[in-house]
Amino acid sequence: MLESIFPSEVTGNAARITVTGTQSVQVEQHRGLVCYRAEEAAFRTADGMVRITGQQLDLRAYTAEEAMVTGVIECLSFSGNGGGRP
């Protein structure tokens, strides 16, 4: 019933990704940080991997529910399916 009213990112496991210009990416409902360095950050999600590449990337916030990456965002990519915890 709720699925017909609310989008899957609210009722399910789908990650919600918010990109603000080329300065920040917020990833909600991630399943863990896989890689983090000044040029790349990668997160596991229910649907696979989310990879952020750029320059001077900073993991501005990180909790079990959400993460915020700031810097010069050059690319956001998705790969795989079912990137749940190993």
Structure characterization notes:
- About 10% of the residues lie in helices and about 60% in strands.
- The chain has about 90 residues and is mainly beta.
- It has one domain (about 1-80): Immunoglobulin-like (Sandwich).
- It has a six-stranded antiparallel beta sheet, with no helix packed on it.
- It is globular.
- The N and C termini lie far apart (about 30 Å).
- The mean pLDDT is about 85.
- Residue share in β-strands: over 45%
How many domains? 1
Largest β-sheet summary: 6 strands, antiparallel
By CATH, the topology is: Immunoglobulin-like
Along the chain, the helix and strand elements come as HHEEEEEE
CATH class: Mainly Beta
Query: What's the rounded overall pLDDT mean?
Result: 87
Query: Based on CA inertia axes, which overall geometry fits?
Result: globular
Secondary-structure-based class equals: mainly beta
Distance between the termini: 31 Å
The helicity comes to under 10%
Strand segment count: 6
How big is the Rg? 13 Å
Ranges where pLDDT stays below 50 over 5 or more residues in a row are: none
How does the SSE layout of this entry go?
Blueprint: H1 2-5, H2 8-11, E1 16-20, E2 24-28, E3 33-37, E4 40-45, E5 48-62, E6 66-79
Antiparallel strand pairs: 1-2, 2-6, 3-4, 4-5, 5-6
